[in-house]
């Protein structure tokens, strides 16, 4: 059982695959306790091989080591509208009042051809990936293969975690099958440069305090720490220690809404003051974009009203994006307006 002020515990997920009834029950009880408390836990004993985790992390570093012009060839903002490709440093502000974030990203998802009904209907984050050209990156085939292999294995893990979540609510483990069928999930390779010593400590973030928008997030960290979760009760920041081979799992806003706020989508952030480069890979599992989410069974007392109206997965996730990118855009416009109002020699750099 996790207690007030405890960092997210490491749970052995192998009980789901091979455990006896008692081990499975313990896993379900531990996951429930985390969902009620901080909405965060780590898992070992899953089926994603260590070599594949290492392989994708190696690619994460290799991709961000490319020169900026080459990364810009697959710029997410100019090459497509379905959220794939490279995201420049300082493109997001998730925490109101802080500086644009010290992270760059590369978005990958299911390889959806332009003939697919999700693409033609412009469904949430659905379309072909944006890979660098072989002239830019001669072994791009291996980047693509490793990324997709990793992506599909983590998506399968997300489906297994949904089975455990169903059991935490005393539902049949197949309860979420209609929701996970045709699910959309997006993964992003992330690189957090170490915070320069002269950057304002109170305002600088790798990623500002935020909650995730989707259903669950499955995150791989490298060895450099920096991820912190706000303890829901003490309001202290707890470090989520990088653990070799483990995934960090957290619930997103959609899961919280779906459970009538019984389960927690918790605030977290990254501050990298380690002096080293930090790399991580979250996979955001949204679910089937057309699935309608409305208060889950066993999440409200007899006669109690559901807090939220039904909403599709797509509507819920898109609402979250609009808020965070809008903030970064406003910041940049305001900063640019200030620069334009200043004598040239004293202009400040704007991301
Ligand atoms: O990089 C991390 O450790 C966390 C990333 C994260 O919170 C996010 O991308 O939403
Ligand atoms: Fe997050």
TrEMBL record:
Keywords: Iron, Metal-binding, Oxidoreductase. GO terms for molecular function: metal ion binding; oxidoreductase activity. Coiled coil: none annotated. GO terms for biological process: small molecule biosynthetic process. InterPro entries: DIOX_N, IPNS-like_FE2OG_OXY, IPNS-like_sf, Iron_ascorbate_oxido_reductase, Oxoglu/Fe-dep_dioxygenase_dom. Belongs to the iron/ascorbate-dependent oxidoreductase family. This is Clavaminate synthase-like protein. It comes from Karstenula rhodostoma CBS 690.94. The lineage of its organism: Eukaryota, Fungi, Dikarya, Ascomycota, Pezizomycotina.
């Amino acid at each position: 059982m996790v207690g007030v002020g405890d960092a997210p515990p490491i749970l052995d997920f192998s009980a789901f695959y091979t455990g006896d009834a008692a081990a499975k029950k313990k896993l379900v009880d531990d996951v429930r306790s985390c969902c009620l408390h901080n909405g965060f836990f780590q898992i070992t004993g899953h089926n994603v091989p260590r070599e594949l985790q290492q392989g994708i992390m190696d690619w994460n570093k290799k991709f961000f080591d490319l020169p900026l012009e080459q990364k810009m060839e697959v710029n997410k903002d100019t090459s497509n509208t379905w959220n794939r490709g490279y995201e420049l440093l300082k493109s997001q502000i998730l925490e109101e009042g802080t500086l644009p974030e010290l992270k760059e990203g590369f978005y990958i998802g299911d390889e959806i051809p332009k003939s697919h009904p999700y693409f033609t209907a412009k469904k949430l984050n659905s379309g072909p990936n944006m890979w660098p050209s072989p002239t830019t990156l001669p072994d791009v085939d291996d980047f693509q293969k490793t990324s997709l292999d990793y992506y599909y294995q983590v998506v399968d893990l997300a489906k297994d975690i949904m089975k455990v979540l169903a059991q935490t609510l005393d539902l049949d483990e197949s309860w979420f099958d209609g929701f996970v069928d045709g699910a959309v999930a997006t993964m992003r390779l992330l690189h957090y440069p170490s915070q320069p010593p002269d950057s304002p400590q109170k305002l600088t973030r790798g990623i500002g305090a935020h909650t995730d928008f989707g259903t669950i997030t499955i995150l791989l960290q490298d060895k450099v720490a920096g991820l912190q979760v706000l303890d829901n009760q003490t309001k202290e920041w707890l470090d989520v220690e990088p653990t070799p081979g483990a995934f960090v799992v957290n619930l997103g806003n959609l899961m919280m809404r779906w459970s009538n706020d019984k389960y927690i989508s918790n605030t977290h952030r990254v501050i990298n003051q380690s002096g080293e480069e930090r790399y991580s890979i979250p996979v955001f599992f949204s679910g089937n974009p057309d699935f309608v989410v409305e208060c889950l069974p066993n999440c409200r007392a007899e006669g109690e009203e559901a807090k939220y109206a039904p909403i599709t997965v797509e509507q819920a996730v898109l609402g979250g994006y609009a808020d965070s990118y809008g903030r970064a855009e406003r910041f940049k416009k305001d900063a640019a307006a200030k620069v334009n109002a200043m004598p040239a020699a004293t202009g400040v750099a704007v991301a």
